[in-house]
Amino acid sequence: MIMKKSSKIEDTYAEGFKGFYCRIILTADDEETLKSAAHDATSTPATVIGRIEGGIEKWLDKDETPDGRQGAVLQFWGSGEPEEESVKKFEEEMSYRIRQDILVKPFTSVFDASTDTNGELDMMDRVGHCGDGYEWVEERYGRDMIIVPIMVPDFEIEKTLGYTRGVSGGNFWYFCSSKEAVVRAGRKAVQAIREVDGAITPFGIVSAGSKTETNYPEIGPTTNHPYCPSLRDELDDDSKVPEGIEYIPEIVINARNMEECKEAMRVGIETVLEFDGVEKISAGNYDGNLGSYEIYLKELF
After folding, report:
1. Which of 69, 72, 166, 217 would be a feasible disulfide site paired with 27, CB 3.0-4.6 Å?
2. Whole-model pTM above 0.85?
3. Residue-wise over 117-132: b if at least 16 C-beta within 10 A, else e?
């Protein structure tokens, strides 16, 4: 099937970046609370503005979690190398996600799910001390857990969470002639990517690809205007939107390593090409000047 549609894949590359991440297991008593906490904690992709982003890697059955409850594997990502200052900033930002989106929901717990760690973060200072000095550490589920006394007793978080290097910013664009293709193909691709171990889509379907050149540097990256369909007539020859294309969504992928990132991109591209209205596949890059990796689309197949 993909060979028949290979002509739709542009001979270009996605520009990937070095990043680092924490991988955690979130558990809860019920599905509604679990999904609310998981989605809230990972809902704001923000590494592009110097903060952090996250995503849901997969959902877990009760026999797959440390405390025997339903759960989810979440990833939280920082950009660049895990150096002292970047790790400190990352720890601060991640603590906000845990405190404001998970701890506040009844009967939730957080466990370390790291592999091949480059370092560890002690959760006492920025999360444990929400107990105002009344928190304590005890062994539960075979792990050292911080118990934070709260009004609906009590929040549990493993004392240390590991972090390690990974690949962020893998991506592909799918050029669509219909609104239906944007939504149906994109949702199916995100679902398929979730089946790839270690990969997340921090944005889901992205409607606003960006560029580095900007008239307003104080707000960070701005719209990738040559690819905006509504500017096609205004830009004339400077527009890069083909005739018949009305939408150019993007799917961004972070993964634990390059192999997982490439597999997730391949699966996502294959999936969107199954849908009528998807006319072309491309990817976002910065002429190789910004990221550390060039992931060529045609080499994925």
Report:
1. 69
2. yes
3. beeebebbebbbebbe
- Cα four-point dihedral sign 224, 228, 233, 236: positive
Average pLDDT estimate for 223-240: 97
Enter the tokens of residue 260. 């997982």
Set out the domains of the chain in order of their start, with CATH numbers: 6-15+167-300 (3.30.70.520), 18-164 (3.30.70.520)
Q: What is the chain's alpha carbon radius of gyration, rounded to the nearest angstrom?
A: 21
Q: Residue 259: in which H helix or E strand, if any?
A: helix 258-272
CB distance 227 to 210 below 8 Å: no
And the tokens for 248?
Answer: 């150019």
What whole-number distance in Å separates Cα of residue 143 and Cα of residue 281? Answer: 46
Phi and psi for 47 in degrees, rounded to 5? -65, -25
Q: pLDDT for 96-121, tens place per residue?
A: 999 999 999 999 999 999 988 999 99
d(CA 112, CA 161): 5
Mean pLDDT over 263-291 rounds to: 95
Paired tokens of 176: 């669509």
Question: What pLDDT shows up at residue 199?
Answer: 98
Classify the phi-psi angles of 107: left when phi > 0, otherwise alpha if psi is within -120 to 50, otherwise beta.
Answer: left
C-alpha distances in angstroms, 175 versus 234, 269, 284, 301?
20, 11, 12, 19
Residue type, 67: D
Q: What is the mean pLDDT of residues 255-259?
A: 98
Give all strands (DSSP E) within 28-142, no chain letters: 53-60, 71-79, 109-112, 119-122, 136-140
Cβ neighbours of residue 114 closer than 8 Å, sequence gap 6 or more: 22, 23, 161, 162, 163, 164
pLDDT at 50: 87
